[in-house]
Specification:
InterPro entries: Glyco_trans_2-like (IPR001173), Nucleotide-diphossugar_trans (IPR029044). The protein contains 9 helices and 11 strands. It is α/β, with parallel strands linked by helices. It has a single domain, classed as Alpha-Beta Complex (Spore Coat Polysaccharide Biosynthesis Protein SpsA, Chain A).
């Protein structure tokens, strides 16, 4: 069994994927534990047959689908193909920019006794991507969470959060399997938020560590506007719209944010 299984779902993003894998290979040079790297080509038409020769040290598994399954279903498929203590889900448009990032993410999980960990995501301008986590504590966060939304603020230190971005998402594989993986009704966006919502409902701990920084382009697979409306509608229908307090909290959230 691997200590960590690194998974990437590709859809017409090979140009970014090459940069991503180069940074993964560099980061793993000092990694002494056992790992595997699995890539799913989500019926994108990209030719990934040369990846194994370009990155022989990674011993990449390449899987293909006949149709685009989306983000969550794609990672569910990859997770079923191997066994590991940890899963590290990566978007193809991310790049490690600090040494030993993978080792530090695992150490963060162990030290904080969390089963889900996410790092700070950095933009091309060097700023923090405001969607890299959702706040858990405070009035504004409480109102947002209980109306099916999210509240973000800049953080400098490790903190428990409601969710972390799926762009770089470390999770215990036992917990991932126990939860049944991602809800495949989500095609793209909010699936990691919903998974963390279910995980926290069972007493699970999600942490965000902004001392670990990863570069992320963001939005290269599809425009957020093309998928987010359907994802939000499904999330609300499944978990919030039957709550009596939902209409009032929705109004309060709009006023506060």
């Amino acid at each position: 069994m691997d200590d960590i299984r690194i998974q990437i779902v590709n859809f017409k993003t090979k140009r970014y994927l090459l940069e991503c894998l180069a940074s993964v290979a560099e980061d793993l040079k000092s990694f002494s534990d056992k790992y595997s790297v699995a890539i799913l080509d989500n019926a994108s038409g990209d030719d990934l047959s040369d990846l194994s020769s370009q990155f022989p040290q990674l011993k990449i598994e390449i899987h293909q689908t006949e149709k685009n399954l989306g983000f969550g279903a794609g990672h569910n498929l990859l997770a079923k193909q191997g066994e590991a203590q940890w899963l590290l889900l990566l978007n193809p448009d991310m790049r490690f920019i600090q040494p030993e990032t993978i080792r530090r993410l695992i150490c963060c999980a162990r030290d904080s006794q969390a089963d889900v960990v996410g790092p700070r995501l950095q933009t091309e301008q060097g700023t923090t991507q405001w969607w890299d986590h959702g706040e858990l504590h405070g009035l504004r966060a409480w109102v947002a969470l209980n109306s099916g939304n999210s509240f973000w603020q800049e953080r400098k230190e490790l903190t428990s959060v409601a969710w972390v971005s799926g762009a770089v998402f470390l999770i215990s594989k036992d917990k991932f399997d126990w939860l049944g993986g991602f809800d495949e009704q989500f095609f793209l966006y909010k699936e990691e938020e919903e998974l963390c919502w279910r995980f926290r409902a069972t007493g699970g701990k999600v942490v965000y560590d902004p001392t670990i920084t990863v570069f992320h382009h963001g939005g290269v697979v599809a425009k957020k506007s093309e998928c987010i409306e359907k994802s939000v509608a499904y999330f609300l229908e499944e978990h919030f719209k039957n709550r009596r307090s939902y209409p009032l909290l929705k109004i309060l959230n709009r006023m506060m944010h």
